[in-house]
Amino acid sequence: MRILNLIGFAIIGFVLLNCSPYKNLTKMEFEDLEYPYPVKTATVNENIKIAYIDEGAGDQTIIFIHGLGSYLRAWEKNIPALKEKYRCIAIDLPGYGKSDKGIYPYSMDFFADVIKEFTEELNIKNAVIAGHSLGGQIAISTALKYPEIVSKLILVDPAGFERFTEGQKQWFRDVMTVKFVKFTSPNQIRKNVVINFYDMPDDAEFMITDRIALRGAKDFDKYCYAVVESVSAMVDAPVYNLLEKIKQPTLIVFGKNDELIPNRFLNPGFTEDIAKEGTSKIPNAKLVLFEKCGHFSQFEKADEFNYEVEIFLK
Question: In terms of residue numbers, what domain contains 39?
């Protein structure tokens, strides 16, 4: 029965792909992803290679951490502007983009350890940690576990401000399976990307085409595993009740029309309320809300975001 189900999923995926506007996409490996800057690698946790780009220079270093299912291109509208004044490093988390993929012990502690070891590998004494969505919760977890390496925080539509019951957490675990991620149809992939925006810009189309083209990549199953385990990492290590322990100056950016936070199925409500409540718990925090903006604030409102970051870092 399991084999028949898998065959059914494959047939459905094949039909949908060949009936979609993306039917002519060429299959791609993760190493074929096109990045805007030269890619370097650093080894953490003894044998995990982390892919990253390292641009610009300045008296402050920003380490950018992408969100769930994403990669370092999430910051490609920010680095060109910010690298004029700061050293800007964007990474692919383990399991994502051009970084190594494997059956790693994904957890918030694991991700925080990766960031810590990454800074040591690059001899960075402390850094501004910028995180989007999942990356925001990783940034918070890193600041709490290793405060000595984090000078400031930039949280962009961060996970971690929303609270979930034990039943809701189990719902996430039950719904997010490797098979569910692996056999997501092209049409649903497009919907999953579009919902990140209030009005998806044309230059975000690569987020859809890359994701579809990677479906046949040799490490695609391990990528799907990383996505699933990243969700579990978020719900298994909530940070809401720890926000008051954050001592670093913190910039928090939300799109007022974020359709992902709060979760519309589990916690209907307003993004602004979640943003203000979470911000109020961090002792030295500033909240910026962008009008007509969704979950991908740094991309959809790039100029405004870059301006707020410069003001904050001054």
Answer: 2-313
